[in-house]
Amino acid sequence: MKELHEHFQRQRKYIFYLLALYALGWGFTPYPQAFLSLFLGTAISFYNLWTMVRKVERFGQAVAEGKKVRSLGMISRMAAAALAVFVAMEWPQHFSIGLVVLGLMTSYIVIIIDFLLQKMRQGEER
């Protein structure tokens, strides 16, 4: 589980940098709708990543103790994504649905980039 926490710490840092960049873009560029949409999607994406890490920890702990595990919470993560899309549809003057969906995929993109960076670093150490 220590490795899971290390991965999550790095990914959280990257996502927070992106959220800060989106906030600056929202405040200081002529494209506030785009950056606000990306911010909303990325915030929900981060929430989904955080809940997944928590549930994987509980899953691992339950398996180690020989207990049954209910699920990893796919429905709750889908509901959070649906909420983001609902917000974008409710206020189209403030949000773009396409960019909200792109923001929802941000955590997966960050995970892939983090994986590739770690593989490159391991290759340099050898």
Automatic annotation (TrEMBL):
A Pfam family annotated for this UniProt entry: ATP-synt_I
Subcellular localization: Cell membrane
GO cellular component: plasma membrane
Keywords: Cell membrane, Membrane, Transmembrane, Transmembrane helix
Keyword Transmembrane helix: yes
Topology within the bilayer: Multi-pass membrane protein
Membrane-crossing segments per the record: 12-28, 34-50, 71-89, 95-117
PANTHER family per the UniProt record, alphabetical: ATP SYNTHASE PROTEIN I
Protein name as catalogued: ATP synthase protein I
